[in-house]
Each structure stands twice: as C-alpha cells, then as structure tokens.
Write a structure and sequence with these properties.
By secondary structure, the chain is α+β, with helices and mostly antiparallel strands. The chain is built from three helices and five strands. It has helices at about 5-10, 55-75, 120-135; strands spanning about 15-20, 20-25, 35-40, 80, 95-100. The radius of gyration is 14 Å and the shape is globular. It holds the Pfam family HIT.
C-alpha cells in the first residue's frame, strides 16, 4: 500500500517522525501545543471504528504516547483529542494542549483565527524533545 499525506495536512505541519504505523506531525501554530497523528491506512478509512483490531490498537497506543508527550513537554491544563475529519477526510487525530490562559479558551481551536508560526529553532527543539521521548 502506498501512502500519501493529504496536501492540506502536509502544508500546515512539520513532521516529527513515525510511530506504530502513524505519522506524527506538529501543527504550525505556536499558540497551542498541537500535534496530529496520521495513521498510514488505506484511502477511504476515515474513522477509528473502521480500523482492523490490530491497527486500532496501534493507533490507540500512539494517541496515548503523543498525549503523554504533549502533557509532559508543554504542561497544558487539559488535552483535547479528536478524530474529526470534516474538512480533510484522511484519517487524522488531533491532540491539542489547552490551558485557561490560551486565547481561544474555553472555545474550540478549530475555528480560532489567530495564528503564530513556529520559528525554526522552536521546531527543532520540539523535534529533539520528541525524539528523546520516543527513544527512552
């Protein structure tokens, strides 16, 4: 099976690596600690219940590990985890760290229009922290 990342996901993120058959991406918006997991599954599989049991287990473990990374690295008060896909149908899971001080609180980040792009040094710092996290 060949896998191609949806152009919209590729355009708005930086790849941190691969984990259990999933791409792990950093959303290019430094306002929120926001990672995206993209399982490398066949086109047409859009929702978690469509995964075979083994792949579902791998994706669930990836969600847990990425959630733990966001919690430990960024220290948010709350994590929002969602597999929505209304605009981009390729299966992807958002893991967003939220805190009462963030500018979208208590609303949703999906419709928040503010954006602050990461500086290259910030991206490298997060990528290094991610690599150290998965290698431990």
């Amino acid at each position: 099976m060949s896998f191609t990342l949806h152009p919209r996901l590729a355009a708005g993120t930086f790849e941190l690596g691969e984990l259990l058959g999933c791409r792990v991406l950093l959303k290019n918006n430094a306002i929120f600690p926001w990672l995206i997991i993209v399982p490398e599954v066949e086109e047409g599989i859009e929702d978690l219940h469509q995964l075979d049991p083994n792949t579902y287990g791998d994706v669930a473990i990836a969600i847990r590990l990425v959630s733990q990374f966001v919690a430990e690295h960024f220290h948010p008060e709350k994590l929002n985890v969602a597999c929505i896909g209304n605009q981009v149908r390729q299966m992807h899971i958002h893991i967003v760290g939220r805190s009462t001080g963030d500018p979208a609180w208590p609303g949703v980040v999906w419709s928040f229009e503010g954006k602050k792009e990461y500086r290259p040094s910030e991206i490298e710092s997060i990528r290094t922290a991610w690599e150290m996290y998965v290698d431990r």
